[in-house]
Each structure stands twice: as structure tokens, then as C-alpha cells.
Specification:
- The protein is mainly β.
- Strands 1, 13, 14, 17, 18, 19, 20, 21, 22 and 23 form a ten-stranded antiparallel beta sheet that branches.
- The chain starts with 6 loop residues before the first strand and ends in a 5-residue tail after the last helix.
- 5% of the residues lie in helices and 50% in strands.
- It contains one helix and 25 strands.
- A hairpin with a 5-residue loop joins strand 13 and strand 14.
- Bound molecules: fe (ii) ion.
- The site of fe (ii) ion has 7 residues, from strand 5 and strand 10.
- Fe (ii) ion binds next to strand 5 and strand 10.
Length: 282
């Protein structure tokens, strides 16, 4: 076991289309199961051309997972079968636990200059929680604590605990850590991680090194890390802005079709039958 988490594999986000024709970049998804367990998918959407996103993600179901949306720039209007309705704005997070089932829509609107930029992560739920009651957590940017270390590293804590500062998203079964970190130029940053948890970083901007890896990682690289007690990130002349995400693996079978992820094909079949005959929402 290494003390420092080393690089297992670097992925580059690839262009794909989702929803009603939204252009986005996917860093991992269906093909990578079970490499990122408990995480299933990571999408980055970023465009200043509304044609890339305006068709949005009209009404669709989810069951058995959590979808976590973090907006850096622009807005996403959402509505759901529980009667929730609202706007996720710049810096806001929506942590949606679909549980037994939710039908919702997510419609990106962009900001005043047409920019729409953010991320969607899917986290799996263990068998015993797949049919839990659905729940929304809308977290406003102002509720997300930001820590600045003596060396000028900025850490926004969406979920997790850094130096005793706890993020607003708590009581999630995979015990996640979701941090937005900026490490200034010519700085080393060490961050403890829980042993056995899956941990990855997605680089938003700039360049950095992970552990003793000589290759730099830059924009739109996703770095999957090996197990270890801590993450070490260093920079040269440029700063690096990235998301650091970790969670406890489930180690369960994955049966996945579209927006629904269960443990068995039989459970998937039931879910889609229920969606067709109108008994999906519990
Ligand atoms: Fe969705």
C-alpha cells in the first residue's frame, strides 16, 4: 500500500450527446463499470453556444442512483414529479437521490453571455438503498464553505470534512467527498483520503502533477488514483483548478440501462414496466 495515491489511469473527456441533443464531454460512463465504483458516470458540459445545450434533458426517470449537478457558470432550470421546481445557478449544487424513482427535467439556460458550464456525476446506491424515498438537496453557492490554506490553496467543500470544516451535503450512504480545489503556481498540496475509497480528480483549468507522476494533467483530464492515505498535487508555473471526488465502493453487481441502475436485469425490467404503466413513482 502506498502512502501517496499514485495515478492508476488518466482519462480524457470525450464528446458525446445526451438528452434531447445536448453536446457534452464524458470522462467515464457505462464502459468503465466497475472501475469507478461507487461512481457511474462523469459528464462535463461547457459551451458559450446555446445550440449546444438549449434542448436540454426533458422529462426522464431515474431509479437506484444519485445525480449530482454542480454549475460553474450559467443556470439550469429543473422540475420533478415531487413538485420541486427551481433554478440551479453559478456555484450551486443539486444532490438528487433518485432512490425508488423520480421523473424530472433539467433544462440548461446559460448566463447573460450564453455560457453554460458545469458537471454531472452519477453515484450508485447500494441494494438496500435503491428503493429509498427520493430526496433533493439544493445547495446554494453561499452555503458551500471555502477554506484557504496558508499556502493559498482554495478548497470549496461541497461534501466531506477538511480540517474540521464540514460541507453541506451530509448523510450520503457512500460517504462521499466532493471538493473544488485551486492550487496556486509553484505549490505542493497534500490532502488525506480514506483508505479503500475510490478517488479521482477532474481538471477544470491549468496544469498539475499528481504524486510522483512526471506527466502533467491539464484541462479535461480525469485522473483515477490508486488506493492510499493521501493525495499529493504539485504545480509549476501554472495553477491548477480541479474537482477531487471520493466515495466508498459498493462491490455489488450493476444492471444499468439508460437513467436507471439496479442490481439485476429483472429489477431493470420491473422499473421500465412500471414507467410504462404509470406505477413508477412510489
Ligand atoms: Fe436526470
Amino acid at each position: 500500500m502506498n502512502r501517496n495515491r499514485t495515478v492508476k489511469k488518466i482519462f480524457t473527456a470525450n464528446p458525446t450527446r445526451e438528452g434531447a441533443g445536448v453536446h457534452l464531454k464524458r470522462a467515464f460512463g457505462y464502459k468503465e463499470v466497475p472501475l469507478f465504483d461507487p461512481f457511474l458516470l462523469f459528464d462535463h458540459f461547457g459551451s458559450n453556444d446555446s445550440r449546444d445545450y438549449i434542448k436540454g434533458f426533458p422529462w426522464h426517470p431515474h431509479r437506484g442512483i444519485e445525480t449530482i449537478t454542480y454549475i460553474l457558470r450559467g443556470t439550469v432550470e429543473h422540475g420533478d414529479s415531487m413538485g420541486n421546481k427551481g433554478v440551479i445557478g453559478s456555484g450551486d449544487v443539486q444532490w438528487m437521490t433518485a432512490g425508488s424513482g423520480i421523473i424530472h427535467q433539467e433544462m440548461p439556460k446559460g448566463d447573460e453571455n450564453g455560457y453554460n458550464w458545469g458537471f454531472q456525476l452519477w453515484a450508485n446506491l447500494p441494494k438496500s438503498y435503491k428503493m429509498m424515498s427520493p430526496r433533493y438537496r439544493d445547495v446554494k453557492s453561499s452555503e458551500i464553505p471555502e477554506l484557504i490554506t496558508a499556502r493559498g490553496v482554495k478548497i470549496k467543500i461541497i461534501s466531506g470534512n477538511v480540517n474540521g470544516i464540514v460541507g453541506p451535503v451530509q448523510d450520503i450512504v457512500i460517504d462521499p467527498e466532493y471538493l473544488d480545489i485551486t492550487v496556486p503556481a509553484k505549490t505542493d498540496f497534500i490532502h488525506p483520503t480514506k483508505l479503500g475509497h475510490t478517488c479521482f480528480a477532474y481538471v477544470i483549468e491549468g496544469k498539475g502533477y499528481f504524486s510522483d507522476e512526471k506527466k502533467t494533467v491539464a484541462n479535461e483530464d480525469l485522473v483515477l488514483l490508486n488506493d492510499g492515505e493521501q493525495v499529493v498535487i504539485s504545480t509549476d508555473a501554472e495553477s491548477v483548478h480541479f474537482l477531487l471526488i471520493a466515495g466508498k465502493p459498493l462491490g455489488e453487481p450493476v444492471a444499468w440501462y439508460g437513467p436507471i441502475v439496479m442490481n439485476t436485469q429483472a429489477e431493470l425490467k420491473i422499473a421500465f414496466e412500471e414507467y410504462r404503466n404509470g406505477t413508477f413513482i412510489k
